[in-house]
Amino acid sequence: MKLTRKLVLAKAKASDLESVKKLNCWGCSLTDISIFSQMTNIKVLTLSVNNISSLAPLAGCLSLCELYLRRNMIPSLSELSHLRLLTRLRVLWLAENPCCGTDLSQYRLTVLRCLPRLQKLDNQVVTEDEIALALMEGEEVITPPDGVQSQLSNNGLPDAETENDPLNYNMVETNKIRQELGMKPLSRDKFPSVSSPSTRETRSFQRKTHALDAILLLLRDLDEEELRIVYTTTQNRLQTYTLDSETLKDSLQTQKTAEIQH
Fold this sequence. Notes:
Blueprint: H1 5-12, E1 22-24, E2 44-46, E3 66-68, E4 91-93, H2 104-114, E5 120-121, E6 124-125, H3 128-137, H4 147-155, H5 160-163, H6 166-180, H7 200-219, H8 224-261
Parallel strand pairs: 1-2, 2-3, 3-4, 4-5
Antiparallel strand pairs: 5-6
């Protein structure tokens, strides 16, 4: 079933979509929620007990604070990538979806790594320790195929020319973020061509670029307490790299010494 403008206005008792701030569509057998691409002011949204499989239409709901999606048909946690730019989202109920899997602990860490601003997940309060652990051990959420393009279209960010050049969009947006943070912009040759054959190296670079973009976007909206969590986690990761580097250096030195002795 498709959620229509008429149904939304009737449930919300509103005269236009822009004025709808809260909406309850619990148990309406919904499969199509594309209407939300036109509802950028929605703050509290209840969509539990439906048949929703894609969260792409929610990518432009930048005012969303609470989202209830329990018992739907969301197939993969990759759908959470559509919620990354919703910087005000604090409450998410996602339980009893196929994407939750059987390892609920890992599921929770993965969700919190993707959406570290959440204060409550599945009706359970999120702790600072959980966020710190999630940033280290949660799995990376990869954007679904065509997900980036879908989000850009819903948010109405780029013009037609930019939409036809995802490489240009990624480069421009990344450099905007880097400039705001006092970092040097990257040249176009640092970005792999999207028209070239897809290689393992290219895919790896793109994943790292998307991850960096997401992190830099998040940093702009974090408060002091949240920034301290990121700082602590970053220090721990850097210490790990330093220890690995020193171990490798010692190993090479030992090997070199042994070769000289022989």
